[in-house]
Design goal:
Layout: E1 3-8, H1 14-26, E2 30-35, H2 45-50, E3 54-57, H3 66-69, H4 71-78, E4 81-87, H5 89-96, H6 103-110, E5 118-122, H7 126-130, H8 132-143, E6 146-148, E7 152-155, E8 161-165, H9 169-180, E9 189-194, E10 199-200, E11 206-207, H10 214-225, E12 229-234, E13 247-251, H11 255-266, E14 271-274, E15 281-283, E16 302-304, H12 308-315, E17 320-327, H13 331-341, E18 346-351, E19 362-369, E20 374-380, H14 381-396
Parallel strand pairs: 1-2, 1-4, 2-3, 4-5, 5-6, 9-12, 9-14, 12-13, 14-17, 17-18
Antiparallel strand pairs: 7-8, 10-11, 15-16, 18-19, 19-20
Bound molecules: cytidine-5'-monophosphate (C5P).
Cytidine-5'-monophosphate (C5P) binds at residues 193, 255, 274-276, 278, 305, 307-309, 323-325, 338.
């Protein structure tokens, strides 16, 4: 796991950095933190240390101690990745002009950024962000070895609405992981279906399934982290997917829409991962007006939906196909049948009998290969997605 140096400068967004650090620690990264005097106005060194990170603050440094005298150089040499989150307008200005007036700016100057840039995640009021001085500083930094993880737009702590919100912890983790991953999927296009399809009965009712989209999101992350171009075909989701330059999100609520999009995208894709919970049936006669509850009973005539992954695999057999099988009994037997009948390369079997999977962050799966080799995994959906993609590496080499 990587050695990550994180600078925290003065901004209210520092609270997000705590969540970011917590996630990095869960992923077993080693984290050292430089907390500026400004940063310490928002989060404490104790809080950071409690997450298992070594933390250094200007106020508590003692340069008469030999081990601290060269700390800025030692930290810069130790770091495999260097992220400054949040980067305040003041810190950005100092970095743009080579100031070295605190441990953080000294470490930046001492860091060899020729192989890995320093990642800056600005956070400030929208007016400060648009200020020509800030924009000129950003331009200077971009021309040097800094990568800016651009802030998002939205409501700000001060009440303004505009650009300057630091990215969320989840996005920072994703971007950090991406800097660490081997880009084995660069140039590859992967379709991922996720969420639950929605089959309309009338303008207000529908048939659907349980599915939050969390497993799909974990898979998208794992693919993006490996450099892939991802097309997310989204049914109904309980989560909002963050944006990413290599991610295209297409809303495909019904199974028919999802299939149409999948077939269009499949023409130049390399892989399809079907994680969506597709409704098995749709209504035969959609009612264009809301059905009134006049009678005690009504009967809906249903017809089978097309099987998305099977159809894609039939029309594009060269595509690698990965499916999921949510089962309540005879897990391996049913999943293996689906692997064969749908013509898949890999199937991930979920035991959903205990209802501990839907909308949870953890899952328990068995990955079944065509040869019958089965691997059981239990953990966060993120860990499971990582394992699935690790397993896929051998399949991907054949693309
Ligand atoms: O047949 P079953 O729904 O259990 O199959 C599950 C797998 O097939 C999942 O990967 C799911 O996304 C995919 N599927 C599909 N189109 C359907 C039904 C399921 O692509 N109509």
């Amino acid at each position: 796991m990587a050695k990550i140096l994180i600078g925290i400068s003065g901004s209210i967004a520092a609270y997000k950095t705590i969540l970011y650090l917590r996630e990095l620690r869960k992923l077993n990264h080693q984290c050292r933190v430089i907390l500026t005097t400004g940063g310490a106005q928002f989060v404490t060194a104790n809080l950071i240390a409690a997450l298992g990170c070594e933390v250094y603050c200007d106020q508590t440094l003692d340069f008469t101690k030999a081990e601290q005298a060269m700390l800025h150089i030692d930290l810069a040499k130790w770091a495999e990745r260097f992220v400054i989150a949040p980067s305040s307008a003041h810190t950005l200005a100092k970095l743009a002009h080579g100031f070295a007036d605190n441990l953080l700016t000294q470490a930046v100057l001492a860091y060899d950024a020729t192989t890995q840039p320093i990642y800056l995640t600005p956070a400030m009021n929208q007016q400060m962000w648009h200020n020509p001085a800030t924009q000129a500083n950003l331009q200077l930094l971009k021309e040097r070895n800094f990568t800016i993880w651009e802030p998002a737009s939205g409501l700000q702590a001060c009440g303004d609405n505009g650009t300057g919100r630091m990215l969320e912890a989840e996005q920072l983790v994703m971007l950090t992981e991406q800097t660490l991953a081997k880009p084995i999927l660069t140039g590859k296009k992967i379709i991922i279906t996720l969420g639950a399809t929605v089959e309309a009965i009338d303008p207000v009712r529908f048939i659907s399934n349980h599915s939050s989209g969390k497993m799909g999101w974990a898979l998208i992350n794992a693919a993006l982290a490996r450099g892939a171009q991802v097309i997310a075909l989204c049914g109904k989701l309980a989560i909002k997917l963050p944006t990413h330059p290599h991610l295209q999100q297409i809303e495909t609520l019904s199974a028919d829409d999802m299939l149409t999009s999948a077939l269009i995208q499949a023409t130049d894709a390399d892989m399809i991962v079907a994680c969506a919970a597709v409704a098995d049936y749709k209504v035969v006669n959609y009612a264009p007006q809301k059905i009134k509850k006049k009678s005690e009973r009504i009967t809906l005539e249903l017809t089978k939906n097309p099987d998305i992954i099977s159809t894609v695999k039939q029309q594009f057999p060269q595509l690698i196909g990965i499916g999921f099988a949510a089962e309540t009994e005879n897990l391996i037997e049913h999943a293996t049948n689906k692997l064969k009948t749908k013509g898949l390369d890999l199937i991930i079997a979920n035991d959903v009998s205990e209802q501990q999977i839907f909308n949870h962050d953890t899952t328990k799966v068995s990955i079944i290969e065509q040869s019958g080799t089965t691997q059981e995994l239990n953990g966060s959906k993120k860990q499971v997605a990582e394992k699935i993609f690790e397993q896929l590496e051998s399949l991907l080499c054949k693309i």
